[in-house]
Amino acid sequence: MESHNSSLLWVLMIIFVSTINISFVHGLGVNWGTRATHPLPPNIAVKLMKDNGFNKVKLFEAEGWALDALKNSGIQVMLGIPNDLLGSLASGVTVAENWVAKNVSAYVSRGVDIRYVAVGNEPFLKTYKDMFTNTTLPALKNIQAALIKAGLGRQVKVTVPLNADVYESSSGVPSEGNFRADIHDLMISIVKFLSDNMAPLTINIYPFLSLYADPHFPIDFAFFAGTNAPVMDGSVSYTNVFDANYDTLVWALEKNGFSSMPIIVGEIGWPTDGDLNANIQYARKFNQGLLSRINQGQGTPKRKTLSDIYFFGLIDEDAKSIDPGNFERHWGIFNYDGTVKYKLDLGKNQTLVPAKGVQYLPRQWCVMAPRASETDPNLADSIKYACTYADCTSLGFGSTCGGLDARNNASYAFNRYFQTFNQQKSACNFNNLSVITKTQPTTGKANCKYEIMIDVGKHQKARSPGTSAAADAEAGKSFGCFVMAVFLLISLVA
């Protein structure tokens, strides 16, 4: 009897410990964007995630090649639905059932660990001018019904990734937070539906955009190292914009009867190029500060428990929309080819490791011909043409390749075009101003390099970038998305 009781005690202890682990040990999440002319092969991208401790991934749409690579990987998946599908999904549950059967059930049965379906992406951005206001909730309900019919209602939860501009504070302090007046009733309906179905609310928070939108924003408030001028909310001191922004949402939920609503941070990060404040030093500082908090299990003043957090993003994407700004193509923790941009301490003596097995195009470059003149009347138009069809965002003011001399500026543009079009001989023909060289050129700037693209032809399951509206959905980071940060700035100045 004593032996039996001891065995039972051990079983109960194991269950108890396991429950604690499930409750308090959080995995590391990352967004895997795929808007690239020469994408990192999916099997290599998945291995890159696993090697660096990312066991949760958010995809912006159901792309079969990516889902296939995630089979039996041990990585939990949040599967996105682009905004341009919301209308059809809202039109009837049959459309949703077909979508779930094709994109969820089919892959779950083949070993893809899909945990969430993200219905839309920041659909209530003011820049969308109510385009998705009437379709988001019906689409959400139809997807939920389809998941239940497919027998996946317990395993797969629905959510809606929202921009931080869906809530605001009239006085600039978190305790005054509430949902935006024009969508208040809709937000309550969405939150109630999610709560009734034991599903989380997902929010995207970007302190970088506070700085981008207002050059006078106090820069130290964007990071996690503290500030000499904290925002005081009663007795609570806010030393960084993330805590203040997140707690504004918590207050908004609490005021409307949802104090225990689970929250996922669906996107957060810092770009490394395309703007004066988008640089490696700031990106490392921000992401390291965030990682340290995750490793320490540190929440916010209003919520001590840790949310699931998905870093944005895994790799750079040279084919993303740059409507919000040139920085949109440079959010990756890793470069386009999976090489490490900067050192990050992941905890437990682990640091970032690069992708393995990447194959590149031949070591050759397209540069401005030695005999070509910088005063050639065709030079400006040639550079403009190259940058129209290739990514030249690194050439902008304050960027890694900004301020190059005329020859290097032209050579950089020519080479980007040449590499983007797979080093075809005809892709280095700019009015007799260019030449192909096998001698590696240098720009004279440490972080500005003449890159060679991935050879997608040498990788199985290679693909070219899609053209669906998911690209715009993913890139839709409005300049005004950090309304809360502006309120906080007013408080600081006051």
UniProtKB/TrEMBL annotation:
This protein's UniProt keywords: Cell membrane, Disulfide bond, Glycoprotein, Glycosidase, GPI-anchor, Hydrolase, Lipoprotein, Membrane, Plant defense, Signal
Domain X8: 364-450
GO cellular component: plasma membrane; side of membrane
A Pfam family hit: Glyco_hydro_17
UniProt catalytic activity: Hydrolysis of (1->3)-beta-D-glucosidic linkages in (1->3)-beta-D-glucans
Family matches, as SMART domains: X8
A molecular-function term among this protein's GO annotations: glucan endo-1,3-beta-D-glucosidase activity
One of the protein's GO biological processes: carbohydrate metabolic process
UniProt topology in membrane: Lipid-anchor; GPI-anchor
Domain of life of the native organism: Eukaryota
Enzyme class: hydrolase
UniProt keyword annotation of Signal present: yes
Cell compartments where the protein resides: Cell membrane
Xref: PROSITE patterns: GLYCOSYL_HYDROL_F17 (PS00587)
EC number: 3.2.1.39
Family the entry assigns: Belongs to the glycosyl hydrolase 17 family.
Name the UniProt record assigns to this protein: glucan endo-1,3-beta-D-glucosidase
Organism name: Deinandra increscens subsp. villosa
